[in-house]
Amino acid sequence: MANGWNVCCANQKNRIIRAMPDLVTRIEANAAALSPAERLVAEVILADPAAAAFATVAQLGRQAGTSGATVVRLAERLGYDGWVGLQADARAGVGQALRPARVRIREAVARDVLAETAEREADNVHRTLAAVDRDAFERAAGHLADPKRSVIIVAGDAEAGVGTFLADGLDLLRPGVRRVAGPMPAVARAMAHLAPGDVLVAVDLRRYESWVLDAVALATARGAVVIAITDTVLSPLAQAADATFTVAAEGTGPFDSHVGTLALANALSSAVARRLRRPAAARLDRVEQAWEATGALRSE
Known about the structure:
With 300 residues, the chain is an alpha/beta fold.
């Protein structure tokens, strides 16, 4: 059991141990004694620490495909004073991992920043793309590639660059794509033109900006398809989304990383390009001709 556990959780283990070492140690120490149902709950906790930190017993049980009673039994088997004790440990760990930049920058220590960054970012990309539900991805790409659907992209301030990258890429492939940003009157004006079946892509992590959440609520009310790119399935963006993609965003320094988020955006653009090969190629040709005619770009 121990070897299988280590293989199954290899991609997440280092990050989670840094966040909640006591909980992980208890799970590993009791791995051989866990029932199949308890093991399912433990795997959810290891794969998504926020689930243990913020979900209810019933929510975590449903996420693991089992019952709330099983969640409580796992907590007791691990030596906690019921679910409350396990969740308190998980919250302390996740809270430590999600410390704001003003706190993390004071904890900087001498190290090989280049090597650590290379390892961390490669891990972010791998974990982000490995966590993608293939059916949800194909469904989202299909919606984004449908020329009958308008697409609006909203992104929190920290993720604005990723939002712009995705909007610009999709705009080169198909018409009817725009990025919208606050203040709220401008967002509400854009949402007013959404028709049922149109698409809203919302990108925001950790501490969610109010205007992004309001945009999601307005789009949902108008019957739009919502695609959420966020940090956990318990994110308020995910609760209203038709498809949710979670990203790994652990940075080397005081700031979150957006490399995994960018990789996911690139994957969505690539999937749309494959679906729209001929019309997208013709659209790109027209754009290239316009650039050449205006001398907008230079190669030297």
